[in-house]
Structure formats: structure tokens, C-alpha cells
Amino acid sequence: xxPTMTSSAIKKWPQPAASEPTRRPLAVYYGPNELMALSxxxxxxxxxxxxxxxxxxxxxxRGVQVLAYLSLGEHDGEMAAWSESERQPEWGTIKVNVTHxxxxxxIQAQIMSEYLAFDGFFLDTLDxxxxxxxxxxxMLKLVRLVRKWAGPRYLLVNRASGLLHRxxxxxxxxxxxxxxxxxxxxxxxxxxxxxxxxxxxxxxxxRFKLEVYALDxxxxxxxxxxxxxxxxxxxxxxxxxxxxxxxxxxxMPGPDANSSVAHAVIP
Length: 267
Hints:
Blueprint: H1 7-11, E1 24-29, H2 35-38, E2 41-46, H3 53-60, E3 65-71, E4 74-75, E5 83-87, E6 94-96, H4 101-114, E7 120-124, H5 133-150, E8 154-158, E9 173-177, E10 181-182, E11 188-189, H6 192-207, E12 211-217, H7 221-234, E13 238-241, H8 260-265
Parallel strand pairs: 1-2, 2-3, 3-7, 7-8, 8-9, 9-12, 12-13
Antiparallel strand pairs: 4-6, 5-6, 10-11
Helix pairs in contact: 4-5
């Protein structure tokens, strides 16, 4: 039987023990292995196909909450009944018709097959234009079904622009990917207007009493420091990595390139 989720259960999600002050808040790692590096974090997001239940359990015994990546708006693999378009050039994924009933069944099967192993799910590709009301309603319904199927497990969403105000009481937190920097078109810092927009996303998520994290991208020490300083100014936990997200400790330049800012942002 699927556990029933209540709003109090969302608010009281257990936090790591206070006796572990050196743990970093969050890692996003899509590679395999690297268990020892990941054990230094409070929460980690991983690709479920890369981590067996035994590996997940190893991390959990060391106080790490392990979240499985789950895409709700795109899929990889072969074309299927719910496929809507040709493959996206960046990652080779295919956009999904969220209204298709078989897609809901597919997502439920994924959750139930991974339900016992993981502490929760990272829900990606949720963003839907307000100009597509049918798709928007279907995505909202799907996220709420994910909550039902996942029970009290932790749910973290990626941005969820246009949906966040309707997901209060359904998800636990928000990861704002490319909060201050981006890899698209080459690694670069955001412009003033782009930074103002993501700052509004942070403010909105906090107003809804959600936990907020930043995920940024860098390929130079200067770009990494830029993201860390911006996160520090907002009091925001941040993970800075490369485009492929295959660095378990994130993008870490040599010791001469690290500054005290990094240690202030990521304790």
C-alpha cells in the first residue's frame, strides 16, 4: 500500500545530525561509483541506473539521503507511444506528450521499481508554458501523482517555472539549475537581467517555504568563484559542476584557485 503524504510530513523531513558540520548540502552526480566522495554530502542526486540498491544503502548508512533522477517531460531510449518530437540535439532526449495515459503508467512503474531503494526523487523537465493550459494541467496532475506514489519520500523539482505556486504542499524543495552561470553556448556568467530573474525564483521558492538549492556550471576558477559569491549573497547552498555532471565533488580547481568564499558558501 502506498503511504499517504501529509503537509506535516513534508515540513518535518529529517535533517542530518548536527554533529556532522562538515557535510556539504547537495551533490548532483550522474556518473557511476565515487561512493566515498558522495558520502560527504547531506543529499545526493544520482542516475538510478548507475547505483544498485547496495550502493544506495551504503550511502544511506552513512547518513546520506539519496535521490533518484526522474524526468517527467522528456525521455531517452527509443520512440514510444508518448513521444512527441524528434530527439533534442543537446542530450538526445525526446519531448513527451504529458497528457498521454501510457506516460503516467510508465512513470508509476519507474517509481515503484525504485521506491524501496531511494530516499526520494529529483523531478526534472517540468517547465511548461502558461500558454499551454492542457499540458500544464497534465504536468501538475503528474507531479501530484508522483507524490502519491512516492509517499513520504523527498521530492526536489528542477526550477518548475510557472508551476511552483501550485505545488506548495506537494514537493519539498527546488533546485534552480543554471542559477548564476550556464554551459549553453559556452560556459558563461548570466547577464544582469538573467540574474534578476533567477533571484526572483529563489525569492518565490522561499516564500512558499520550500528548500532551495542552486546548481551552476563552470570551467574556470573565476566562473566558479562568480557563482559562489552570488550564492553567498543570497545565502543559497550551491553545487558547481561541469556540463556532464560527472564530477562527484563538483568543479574543483587547484588549491591556489580556491578562495575563502568557497568555504563560506559550502561549509
